[in-house]
């Protein structure tokens, strides 16, 4: 393991800026997100919590042009937009968001290869930073990892006060540190402090869900209309929980016509909570709100595990913190009925 003093981190970021566009957590207009590092802001070195806007926005842009098109004679000419994805380094991504990135990778390289997404992923390096003060809405430890887990990143930093202990997780991570000034070998005392910091952070995650019980109950709940009507009653279908969820990845596609026969195709984030979701290709099969709320919860805790053998929720807590009506996924999961509904209540 290695170590770097906090005061030496800016110089390291400057060095990395020679090869990458460096992003770091930044808070502007009250909303934190990964922003291109301005060479000045270092508040993120001591603000060890996840951002409001998740880093998925660095890979699946909230809106992007896919290509321009032009009609010539009887056929269309397409001109891809964007070119090669820039090399980006995300400094300070948190373990829950790193895991979320690995989770949505599965979709974008499974049945088909989404080159828009994968181009950015392949050209990215993730430098993780463990949480030292998780929110009370976080529940990552129930999902098999913790707030300082060194996984799904290229290197991981653990705050030990005036310095970070660095774990090099991948070869990319090792290469990043080659020849870096201010990086030294961690001492036994440093690693002891890092272990203590990780244990302290994990102990602060007091919100829990019972994954084993949820796995048993969730398939039984699917037909329980009464239950889903009850737990969806206060949702206003605003879509905030989906847009801010690091593992939600739905998008819509729209053509902007400039003049007859030419224009551009765009894609933008979409949300299964919206009544108009999937309206364009067909009718929305989930016209009632309770069906859409059921979809959101089942997608994460039933459908995704069936497809990819992993729960598509990292317990980051954003959907709890940001919901305008205090809808709380952990309460819904805890109240899943123990058995299937009676035939008359099924839908
Ligand atoms: S943020 Fe809350 S109100 Fe908005 S869609 Fe999600 S659960 Fe419903
Ligand atoms: S469902 Fe909620 S807690 Fe789970 S990953 Fe999405 S935003 Fe985070």
How would you portray this structure in words?
The chain is an alpha+beta fold and 347 residues long. The protein folds into two domains: 2-204, no CATH class; 211-339, no CATH class. The chain is built from eleven helices and twelve strands. The strands form two sheets. Strands 3-2-6-7-8-9-1-10 form an eight-stranded mixed β-sheet. Strands 5-4-12-11 form a four-stranded antiparallel β-sheet, with no helix packed on it. The longest helix has 20 residues, at 289-308. It starts with a strand and ends in a 13-residue tail after the last helix.
Beta-strand portion reads 15-25%
Q: Name the overall outline.
A: flat
Structural class: alpha+beta
**End-to-end distance:** 55 Å
- Helices, by number, come to 11
Q: How helix-rich are the residues, as a percent range?
A: 25-40%
In which order are the strands of the major sheet placed?
3-2-6-7-8-9-1-10
Q: Which spans of ≥5 residues are poorly predicted at pLDDT below 50? A: none
Q: How many domains make up the 3D coordinates?
A: 2
Would you report the number of β strands? 12
Topology as a string of helices (H) and strands (E): EHEEEEEHHEEEHEHHHHEEHHH
Radius of gyration: 22 Å
Mean pLDDT: 92
Main sheet summary = 8 strands, mixed
Give a list of the ligands: iron/sulfur cluster
